[in-house]
Design brief:
Helices cover about 30% and strands about 30% of the residues. The protein is of the alpha/beta class and about 160 residues long. The chain folds into two domains: about 1-30; about 40-145, no CATH class. The protein has an eight-stranded mixed beta sheet, with no helix packed on it.
Length: about 160
């Protein structure tokens, strides 16, 4: 009887430890956004969202103020529509702008909010018009190589 009691306590300890490790790994990978704050939903359109994913952070001045709710493609405008859930305690001006940024050189992508100067604040269902798409590293490398090749051809013609 004593051995079975110890077995139950060891099993319970292993179960709690496994749940804690799972929680910490999801939190570290930014896949678990636990927030019990009330939110409001706004949307924005981008030409290119790069590697942005649902549940990505929405930050202002480095502080997480919300999460990306969903990303869809609008076949009328041929743009990506991104729906954001912002915490209600943060009120941003209606003329705020959004940028898709990257943490570090090759890190995860998130949305940065640059506050505007309008006196009216964002509310449920508003659409942010001023957006800046993601910088795609492959496009930058391609432009650099194309410009180098073009300048090399111009130098050959000059001689």
């Amino acid at each position: 009887m004593q051995a079975s009691k110890i077995d139950v306590w060891v099993g319970l300890f292993v179960l709690v430890g496994t749940a804690a490790v799972l929680f910490l790994s999801l939190q570290a990978a930014n896949l678990l956004g636990l927030s019990f704050e009330p939110t409001y939903r706004v949307s924005a359109r981008f030409d290119d969202v790069g590697g942005l994913r649902p549940q990505a952070a929405v930050r202002s001045a480095g502080v997480v103020v919300g999460r990306v709710h969903s990303i869809s493609f609008d076949d009328q405008t041929f743009q990506a529509e991104v729906k954001l859930e912002l915490e209600a305690r943060y009120a941003f001006p209606r003329d705020s702008s959004l940028k898709i940024l990257t943490s570090g050189l090759l890190g995860e992508q998130y949305i940065g909010i640059v506050p505007g100067a309008d006196e009216r604040v964002l509310a449920e269902g508003d659409v942010l018009r001023q957006t800046q798409s993601a910088v795609v590293l492959e496009n930058l490398i391609g432009q650099f190589l194309f410009n180098r090749a073009d300048s090399g051809a111009a130098a050959d013609e000059a001689q």
